[in-house]
Amino acid sequence: MTATRLSLLALAASATLAGCSGGTPAPADGDGARPARMFGQIPFHACTLDGGNAATRVEAQCATFEVPENPDAPEGRKIGLNIAWLPADSNDGGTADPVFFLAGGPGQAATELAAQINNGLREVRRQRDIVLVDQRGTGSSNPLTCTDADGEAMELDALTAPDDAALDAYVGRCLAGLEDRADPRFYTTANAIRDLDTVRAALGAEQVNLVGGSYGTRVAQQYAMAYPQHTRSIVLDGVAPNDLVVGGEFAHTFEDALSLQSKQCAQDAACRERFPTDLQAQLRGVLSTLQTTPAPVTYRDPTTGAQRDGVVTPDTVTGLAFLFSYAPQTASLLPLILDEAAQGRYGPLMSLSQLMYSNVGGQMTRGMQWSVICAEDAGRYREDGRVADTILGPGVASMFFGACRTWPTGTPPANHTAALQSEVPALLMSGELDPVTPPAYAERVLAGLPNGRHLVFKGQGHGTFALGCAPKLLAQFIESTDAKALDATCLDAMRPVPPFISFNGWSP
C-alpha cells in the first residue's frame, strides 16, 4: 500500500465539497486594531477569511474563545477556538437562533471553507447569522498538525511506500511535535460538541440551527442527542450514521459509485458508442497491466507546464479514480482517461493525478483526524469477506487505521454509536453518485427522524448544499422548520454531467 493511497484515504473521510480551497483569517485593516463588535459575551473584530484569491475572500468578524483542553480539568491547559461570524444581511440583524456550519473530515476547518459556505448559505444569511467554529484540533483551533523539530509541517511522501514501521515512526515524530501543546486524547467528537454548546451559550443563543457535511453530520447528530433543548433544526449533507465506521466501507461504496457511473454511460448513446467496455472492467484492466509493469511516463506539470518524468502505478490510477468520483464534473473524465491509459497513453492521467493531489493536500489536519477515528472508529472495524473482490481491496481500511497502533486515544461516550431518535426538524441531502456517503446512509438516519425529509440529487456526488436550488431550499427549511412542506420540484431540473468522449468535452 503506497502513501498515495494513504493520501486519498485522508480525503475519503472528508466531509464537504471536493477540491475546496483553504484559507486563513487575516485582519481587514493593516494592524487589526478595529473596535470590537460583541456577539453575546464574545468580542469579535473585523477580518477577511482568505481563500487564496479575490474570488474566495469573505469579509467576516473573527474571535478566539478559550475552552479547557480537558473538560474534566477546567483549571488545566486552555485552547483557543477560532470562530468566524458572518453577520446576517438583514438591516435589523440576525434572528435569535444562528446557523452553525460543521465541517467534515474529520480534520477540516470550517473557517477555511468560508467561501463555499457563504455561497451555499447565501439565502440563509439574508435573515440569519452564520457561525463557523474551527473544531478543536483543526484550522486555528490548536491544530494537531504534524511538524518536525523546527516547526515545519511534515508530509508523507506521496511517491514512496511506507511500511508499518515507517508509518509508526512518522506518527512518533508527529506526537513529539505535539507534546508541549496538545494531548490528542481530548480531540474527539464528544469534546467538540461540548465546545459548540459552550460557544452557543457565550453567544447568548438559546437555540441553534446546525448544517453539517459528511463527518459534520455525525457532529450534528451527536449535538442534537446531547443538547436537544438547544437544537432548533438540523441539515445533514452527505449523511454519516453514528454507527458508521468511517473509512471501513470505502471499498464497497466506491464500487457502488463506479457501477452507477457505468450505468450512466450505458444510458448515453455517445458514451456507449465511444466506450463500449464497462467502466469497472476497464479500470480493472488498466490496474492489471500496471500491476505487472508500472509505466514510466513523461507528462506536463499541471502547475508549471514543464515536462516531467514519473512512474504510473496501480495506486496512481486507483487514487485518481477515487478522487474523481467525489464530483460528477471530474467523474465525467474517468472513462476517457482510462481509455487513454488502456492505449498506453498515461500522460493525461499523471498530470491530472498530480493536479488533484496538489489541490487536496493540506485540507485535512492529520492528527485531529487520527484522534477521532482512532477513538471512535478503528476499534469497531471488522473486515468482511466481500471486500477482497473490490477495486480498493482490504488494504484500504487497514492503512486508514494504521496510525491507531500508536496514536493516543480518548474514550468516547458509551452511546456514541446510537442512532439519533428525535423530533427535531431535519433536512437530509445526498448525491446519487456519492462514493463515501451514499443515499442509503441517509435513509438509515431518517428512520429516527419523524420530522425529517431526505432529498436525493440525481447524478451528483459528495456535497450538495450549494448546488442548483439547494440554497433556496435550505433557507426555506430553516425559516419554516418544515422539511415535508418544501416544494423540491426545482431539483428535477438537475441532470447528470455527460461523460467526456474527447478532451474537447462531451457530445453536443
TrEMBL record:
SUPFAM superfamilies per record: alpha/beta-Hydrolases (SSF53474)
Q: Which domain of life is it from?
A: Bacteria
Keywords of the record, alphabetical order, are: Hydrolase, Signal
Which ranges of the sequence are coiled-coil?
none
Entry GO MF terms: hydrolase activity
Which positions make up the signal peptide? 1-18
**Ranges for the AB hydrolase-1 domain?**
98-465
Q: Which Gene3D superfamilies match?
A: alpha/beta hydrolase
The Swiss-Prot or TrEMBL record describes its family as follows: Belongs to the peptidase S33 family.
By what name is this protein known? Alpha/beta hydrolase
